[in-house]
Specification:
The complex is a heterodimer. By secondary structure, chain A is mostly beta strands. In chain A, 0% of the residues lie in helices and 51% in strands. Chain A is globular and about 40 Å long. Chain B is an all-beta fold. Chain B is globular, with a radius of gyration of 13 Å. The termini of chain B are far apart. The relative contact order of chain B is 0.35. The chains are: A mainly beta, B mainly beta. At the A-B interface, strand 5, strand 9 and strand 10 of A face strand 4 and strand 8 of B.
Amino acid sequence: DGGITQSPKYLFRKEGQNVTLSCEQNLNHDAMYWYRQDPGQGLRLIYYSQIVNDFQKGDIAEGYSVSREKKESFPLTVTSAQKNPTAFYLCASGGDSENIQYFGAGTRLSVL
Amino acid sequence: LAKTTQPISMDSYEGQEVNITCSHNNIATNDYITWYQQFPSQGPRFIIQGYKTKVTNEVASLFIPADRKSSTLSLPRVSLSDTAVYYCLVGGWNAGNMLTFGGGTRLMVKP
Protein backbone atom coordinates (compact mmCIF):
# COMPACT_ATOMS: atom_id res chain seq x y z
CA ASP A 1 0.00 0.00 0.00
CA GLY A 2 1.92 3.00 -1.28
CA GLY A 3 1.68 6.48 0.11
CA ILE A 4 2.72 8.92 2.76
CA THR A 5 2.28 8.13 6.41
CA GLN A 6 2.25 10.79 9.08
CA SER A 7 2.24 10.03 12.78
CA PRO A 8 0.86 10.66 15.24
CA LYS A 9 -2.53 11.92 14.09
CA TYR A 10 -2.86 14.08 17.22
CA LEU A 11 -0.04 15.45 19.36
CA PHE A 12 0.07 17.60 22.45
CA ARG A 13 3.01 19.72 23.44
CA LYS A 14 3.83 21.07 26.86
CA GLU A 15 5.42 24.44 27.42
CA GLY A 16 9.14 24.37 26.61
CA GLN A 17 9.00 20.93 25.05
CA ASN A 18 10.32 19.82 21.67
CA VAL A 19 8.12 17.41 19.75
CA THR A 20 8.84 15.46 16.58
CA LEU A 21 6.35 14.68 13.84
CA SER A 22 7.03 11.67 11.69
CA CYS A 23 6.66 11.47 7.91
CA GLU A 24 7.45 8.36 5.90
CA GLN A 25 6.91 7.71 2.19
CA ASN A 26 7.28 4.60 0.05
CA LEU A 27 6.68 6.32 -3.28
CA ASN A 28 10.41 6.54 -4.03
CA HIS A 29 10.11 10.31 -4.34
CA ASP A 30 13.21 12.45 -4.07
CA ALA A 31 11.48 15.56 -2.74
CA MET A 32 9.66 15.92 0.56
CA TYR A 33 7.93 18.90 2.15
CA TRP A 34 6.44 20.12 5.41
CA TYR A 35 3.55 22.58 5.50
CA ARG A 36 1.66 24.26 8.29
CA GLN A 37 -2.04 25.05 8.02
CA ASP A 38 -3.89 27.31 10.44
CA PRO A 39 -7.70 27.24 10.67
CA GLY A 40 -9.37 28.63 7.56
CA GLN A 41 -6.04 29.36 5.92
CA GLY A 42 -3.98 27.94 3.09
CA LEU A 43 -0.79 25.92 3.50
CA ARG A 44 2.53 27.57 4.32
CA LEU A 45 5.83 25.90 3.54
CA ILE A 46 8.08 25.21 6.53
CA TYR A 47 10.94 23.16 5.05
CA TYR A 48 11.57 21.13 1.95
CA SER A 49 14.17 18.62 0.84
CA GLN A 50 14.95 17.75 -2.76
CA ILE A 51 17.49 15.05 -1.96
CA VAL A 52 18.83 13.04 0.94
CA ASN A 53 21.07 14.97 3.35
CA ASP A 54 19.93 18.31 1.98
CA PHE A 55 17.03 20.57 2.93
CA GLN A 56 16.01 24.19 2.53
CA LYS A 57 14.00 26.63 4.61
CA GLY A 58 10.57 27.57 3.43
CA ASP A 59 8.58 30.67 4.30
CA ILE A 60 8.12 29.97 8.02
CA ALA A 61 11.11 27.87 9.16
CA GLU A 62 11.77 29.68 12.45
CA GLY A 63 11.15 27.44 15.44
CA TYR A 64 11.28 24.25 13.37
CA SER A 65 14.02 21.82 12.39
CA VAL A 66 14.20 18.85 10.02
CA SER A 67 16.53 16.08 8.94
CA ARG A 68 16.71 13.94 5.81
CA GLU A 69 18.98 11.01 6.56
CA LYS A 70 16.94 8.57 4.46
CA LYS A 71 15.02 9.02 1.26
CA GLU A 72 11.88 7.64 2.88
CA SER A 73 11.85 9.79 5.99
CA PHE A 74 11.59 13.52 6.69
CA PRO A 75 10.83 14.16 10.39
CA LEU A 76 9.89 17.63 11.61
CA THR A 77 10.78 18.85 15.08
CA VAL A 78 8.74 21.66 16.55
CA THR A 79 11.09 23.28 19.02
CA SER A 80 10.32 25.30 22.13
CA ALA A 81 11.31 28.37 20.13
CA GLN A 82 8.08 28.05 18.13
CA LYS A 83 5.78 30.10 20.35
CA ASN A 84 2.56 29.39 18.47
CA PRO A 85 2.79 25.76 17.37
CA THR A 86 -0.92 24.90 17.40
CA ALA A 87 -1.77 24.01 13.81
CA PHE A 88 -2.39 21.22 11.33
CA TYR A 89 0.90 19.93 9.91
CA LEU A 90 1.04 18.30 6.49
CA CYS A 91 3.86 16.37 4.92
CA ALA A 92 4.11 15.82 1.19
CA SER A 93 6.40 14.14 -1.30
CA GLY A 94 6.85 14.66 -4.99
CA GLY A 95 9.01 13.87 -7.92
CA ASP A 96 7.11 11.86 -10.47
CA SER A 97 5.86 14.86 -12.42
CA GLU A 98 5.97 18.63 -12.59
CA ASN A 99 4.90 20.02 -9.24
CA ILE A 100 2.55 17.20 -8.29
CA GLN A 101 2.80 16.60 -4.58
CA TYR A 102 1.19 13.81 -2.62
CA PHE A 103 0.11 14.58 0.91
CA GLY A 104 -0.18 12.62 4.12
CA ALA A 105 -3.23 12.70 6.37
CA GLY A 106 -1.71 15.33 8.65
CA THR A 107 -0.83 15.74 12.31
CA ARG A 108 -2.82 18.10 14.49
CA LEU A 109 -0.61 19.66 17.14
CA SER A 110 -2.02 21.38 20.20
CA VAL A 111 -0.41 23.04 23.19
CA LEU A 112 -1.32 21.91 26.71
CA LEU B 1 6.87 32.45 -7.81
CA ALA B 2 3.69 33.38 -9.63
CA LYS B 3 0.95 34.67 -7.35
CA THR B 4 -2.55 33.37 -7.87
CA THR B 5 -5.93 34.94 -7.18
CA GLN B 6 -9.08 32.88 -6.70
CA PRO B 7 -12.57 33.65 -5.41
CA ILE B 8 -12.78 33.07 -1.68
CA SER B 9 -15.97 31.04 -1.88
CA MET B 10 -18.60 29.70 -4.28
CA ASP B 11 -21.97 28.04 -3.83
CA SER B 12 -23.55 25.54 -6.19
CA TYR B 13 -26.26 22.90 -6.29
CA GLU B 14 -26.03 19.21 -6.92
CA GLY B 15 -25.89 18.30 -10.59
CA GLN B 16 -24.63 21.67 -11.74
CA GLU B 17 -21.33 22.36 -13.49
CA VAL B 18 -18.97 24.48 -11.42
CA ASN B 19 -16.24 26.66 -12.90
CA ILE B 20 -13.56 28.12 -10.65
CA THR B 21 -11.27 30.67 -12.25
CA CYS B 22 -7.75 31.43 -11.10
CA SER B 23 -5.74 34.48 -12.16
CA HIS B 24 -1.96 34.22 -12.50
CA ASN B 25 -0.87 37.27 -14.44
CA ASN B 26 2.89 36.80 -13.95
CA ILE B 27 3.08 33.12 -14.79
CA ALA B 28 6.51 32.14 -16.11
CA THR B 29 7.19 30.30 -19.34
CA ASN B 30 8.12 27.06 -17.58
CA ASP B 31 5.31 27.14 -15.01
CA TYR B 32 2.63 24.48 -14.91
CA ILE B 33 -0.84 25.06 -13.45
CA THR B 34 -1.98 22.55 -10.87
CA TRP B 35 -5.22 22.23 -8.91
CA TYR B 36 -5.70 20.48 -5.59
CA GLN B 37 -8.79 19.61 -3.54
CA GLN B 38 -8.80 19.58 0.25
CA PHE B 39 -11.45 18.23 2.61
CA PRO B 40 -11.49 19.32 6.27
CA SER B 41 -8.72 17.77 8.37
CA GLN B 42 -7.20 16.00 5.36
CA GLY B 43 -4.22 16.64 3.14
CA PRO B 44 -4.78 18.21 -0.28
CA ARG B 45 -5.34 15.83 -3.16
CA PHE B 46 -4.11 16.40 -6.71
CA ILE B 47 -6.96 16.95 -9.19
CA ILE B 48 -5.50 18.08 -12.50
CA GLN B 49 -2.52 19.76 -14.09
CA GLY B 50 -1.95 21.55 -17.37
CA TYR B 51 0.36 23.81 -19.30
CA LYS B 52 -1.84 25.20 -22.07
CA THR B 53 -5.16 24.66 -23.87
CA LYS B 54 -7.45 22.06 -22.34
CA VAL B 55 -6.81 19.05 -20.15
CA THR B 56 -9.48 16.58 -19.10
CA ASN B 57 -9.42 13.62 -16.75
CA GLU B 58 -12.05 11.51 -15.04
CA VAL B 59 -12.59 14.14 -12.35
CA ALA B 60 -12.35 17.56 -13.98
CA SER B 61 -11.34 19.71 -16.93
CA LEU B 62 -8.81 22.50 -16.96
CA PHE B 63 -9.09 25.31 -19.47
CA ILE B 64 -6.07 27.52 -20.10
CA PRO B 65 -6.26 30.41 -22.60
CA ALA B 66 -3.43 31.16 -24.99
CA ASP B 67 -1.93 33.91 -22.80
CA ARG B 68 -1.93 31.55 -19.77
CA LYS B 69 -2.71 34.44 -17.42
CA SER B 70 -5.68 32.59 -16.01
CA SER B 71 -7.10 29.10 -15.83
CA THR B 72 -10.51 27.61 -15.11
CA LEU B 73 -11.18 24.40 -13.25
CA SER B 74 -14.45 22.85 -14.39
CA LEU B 75 -16.22 20.26 -12.25
CA PRO B 76 -19.06 18.59 -14.15
CA ARG B 77 -22.26 17.70 -12.33
CA VAL B 78 -21.07 18.30 -8.77
CA SER B 79 -22.36 16.31 -5.81
CA LEU B 80 -22.43 17.05 -2.09
CA SER B 81 -19.12 15.23 -1.74
CA ASP B 82 -17.42 17.87 -3.91
CA THR B 83 -17.80 20.38 -1.07
CA ALA B 84 -14.17 21.25 -0.34
CA VAL B 85 -11.48 23.87 -0.74
CA TYR B 86 -9.87 24.06 -4.16
CA TYR B 87 -6.35 25.45 -4.59
CA CYS B 88 -4.78 26.74 -7.78
CA LEU B 89 -0.97 26.71 -7.91
CA VAL B 90 1.57 27.65 -10.53
CA GLY B 91 5.22 26.68 -10.55
CA GLY B 92 7.89 24.74 -12.30
CA TRP B 93 11.00 22.74 -11.49
CA ASN B 94 13.19 25.79 -11.90
CA ALA B 95 11.51 27.33 -8.87
CA GLY B 96 12.99 24.63 -6.67
CA ASN B 97 9.64 22.93 -6.74
CA MET B 98 8.35 25.24 -4.05
CA LEU B 99 4.63 25.79 -4.22
CA THR B 100 2.66 28.62 -2.72
CA PHE B 101 -0.81 27.70 -1.55
CA GLY B 102 -3.11 30.69 -1.36
CA GLY B 103 -6.35 30.68 0.57
CA GLY B 104 -8.10 28.60 -2.06
CA THR B 105 -11.78 28.65 -3.04
CA ARG B 106 -14.31 27.16 -0.64
CA LEU B 107 -16.94 25.39 -2.72
CA MET B 108 -20.22 24.60 -1.00
CA VAL B 109 -22.51 22.22 -2.88
CA LYS B 110 -26.10 22.33 -1.69
CA PRO B 111 -28.81 19.71 -2.21
